[in-house]
Amino acid sequence: MNLFPKLVVNDARRAIEFYTTAFGVKESELFETPDGKIVNVRLVLGDLDFTLKDEDSVDAAPGLDGPPVIINLEAPDPDAVGARMEAGGATVIFPVEDHPYGRMGRLRDPFGHVWIVRGTDGG
After folding, report:
1. Beta partners for 101?
2. Domains detected in the chain
3. H helix count then E strand count, the chain
4. Whole-model pTM?
5. What is the Cα Rg of the chain in Å?
6. Would you say which domain of life the source belongs to (predicted)?
7. What average pLDDT does range 101-106 have in this prediction?
8. 14-31 b/e with 16+ CB inside 10 Å = b?
9. Using 50, 70 and 90 to split pLDDT, how confident is the model at 121?
């Protein structure tokens, strides 16, 4: 069994570029319509996978009311990940800083998805 999220975005090609730069994902498969809309792309992040697609009449990207899910990403250097996300157009909701429960921050990517970036060392 395997379980992974599928993100719906308003510009899948730009999202692939953003996640590649911010997180270092690798693309493992891509399917698109004849007019170039991405219906599924699998992105690999270490031993984790997630997929994404362009929004369409069936699946909408997150709106102003917020996303239905918050994604947690543990990373050895959350400051560097947060900086790469910001450089790629993410908005800081809470800056990466020390908390009693670890070093973490919360950012909204350019496609409306909210990410909690947390240090893997728990501190």
Report:
1. none
2. 6-119 (3.10.180.10)
3. 2, 8
4. 0.81
5. 15
6. Bacteria
7. 91
8. ebbebbeebbebeeeeee
9. confident
